[in-house]
Amino acid sequence: MIEQHARRTKIVKSFEGKALSAPEAEKVAREEVDVLRLVWSSKVKGALLDFLKALKKYRTPERSIPVMLDVAHWTQAVVTGLKEPRAVVFGEKIIVSQKAGQGTLQLTAERWPTLFKAEHDSKTGPGAVKVFFGTGLVVMDVVKQDGDRVELEVKHGGT
User: What angle do CA 77, 95, 104 make, to 5 degrees?
Assistant: First the structure.
């Protein structure tokens, strides 16, 4: 039997820099969060470890928060040409391109040819590669790439 839950949206809470503190870990441990996204950098590795140790104190068999460690903490691409924030919603298809006027969003990226490729050849097809915008709250799957244009499908919307 398929189990259905009332809430379908996953709540991802991101922490980086000064937010990686024991008091913040204790606070988030009491919140209804599905996954934590921690942004790693060599400058905050000590704080990140302290954050995880503090979080571990609140782990129980009934309550265990998965952690996603973001080690790609540098900006890989920048949205250009936006005059105002652009909201996206679940299921929406977005076309991104390096060339102005060729898609929904224009991106500037040094490593465009490999930006949307799976790390391993075993990962292929829609959903094999995820794209995170902003602080990681907007999540999209790569549907297909055709040269300078990439089709994305929104899995978790936002602005």
Answer: 85
Query: Whole-angstrom Cα distance, residue 146 to residue 103?
Result: 12
pLDDT at residue 92 greater than cutoff 90: yes
DSSP conformation class of 156: E
Q: How far is CA 8 from the centre of its chain?
A: 17
Q: How many CA atoms lie within 13 A of 104 on its CB side?
A: 14
Pick left, alpha or beta for residue 136 (phi over 0 → left; psi -120 to 50 → alpha; otherwise beta). Answer: left
Q: Please, what is the average pLDDT of the chain?
A: 81
CA distances from 37 to 75, 81, 90, 102, 151 (A): 16, 28, 20, 32, 25
Q: Does position 2 have pLDDT exceeding 70, yes or no?
A: no
pLDDT per residue as tens digits for the range 23-64: 888 888 888 888 888 887 778 888 888 988 988 888 888 877
Bridge partners for 97 per DSSP: 106, 149
